[in-house]
Amino acid sequence: MSAALQTQMSEAEWLARCELAAVYHVNEHLGWTDTINTHMSVRVPGEPNHFLINNYGDMFDEVTASSLVKMDMDGNVLTPGGRFNNAGFIIHSGVYKARPDANCVLHTHTRAGAGVSLLRNGLRPISQDVLGVWDEIAYHEYGVPATVEECEELGKTCQHGTCVVLLNHGLLTCGETVHGAMMRMWSLERACELELIARQMGEPPVVISDYVIAKAGERMKKRRTTDEYGLNEWRGLVRQVERKGFDFRV
């Protein structure tokens, strides 16, 4: 990071930038990309009306801490020369406005996630992975992209859950921490993969009992309220991308 850039932000913002840059590289590593057309963001620590997002046009493996764009909730770009995707702004600002507790928002267009999004209430309680997020799943009707109306409607949906299936579109998760949002996305993505596999098996899947679903929900609620939720998994994923040798903390 240049000395000039250091003087323009707090240490907390720089650390948030490094973590968000890691998110992009982890998503690249996992194959959760759609060229330049999905986006991840974090709220700037201590600045609840500002968030960081990728510079529109950058591939995920090109993102660095200093390339991220800082925006406010009104759509103003605070990073000189920064470019943003308007649909991305609508999605992320909508969630942050509706969920003051959310500090990270992830949005993907994976094949499994987009596949399940074609089905109304497409996820069923048939896998261990889906039980990790079952009580936090919400479904959002497909609206007109990049509109104020869609921003408001998405905000309403996110008040009902942190793991959102965007019908006809893809997936979205949010969390108080980056690792919490990533753990939700990991579980949601895996649940979608298994759901699609089950629908090709030629016979009905085994449905988990209501008793087990309830007990799993109780356990997961406790886990998600801790700062440790998803932390070890996140650290492991970051180590994997670090071994590739690209310095995203610049």
Question: Which stretches are poorly predicted, pLDDT < 50 over at least 5 residues?
Answer: none
* Global morphology: globular
Provide the succession of SSEs.
HHEEEHEHHEHEEHHH
Biggest sheet features: 7 strands, mixed
What structural category arises from helix and sheet content? alpha+beta
Quickly name the level 1 CATH class.
Alpha Beta
Distance N terminus to C terminus?
5 Å
Give a quick rundown of the structure.
By secondary structure, the protein is of the alpha+beta class. Helix content is 42%, strand content 14%. The model has no long low-confidence stretch (mean pLDDT 95).
Structure overview:
With 250 residues, this protein is α+β, with helices and mostly antiparallel strands. The protein has a single domain (9-237), classed as 3-Layer(aba) Sandwich (L-fuculose-1-phosphate Aldolase), CATH 3.40.225.10. Helices cover 42% and strands 14% of the residues. A 7-stranded mixed beta sheet has the order 3-2-1-4-7-6-5, with helices on both faces. Helix 2 crosses helix 9 (231-242). The longest helix has 21 residues, at 178-198. The termini are close together.
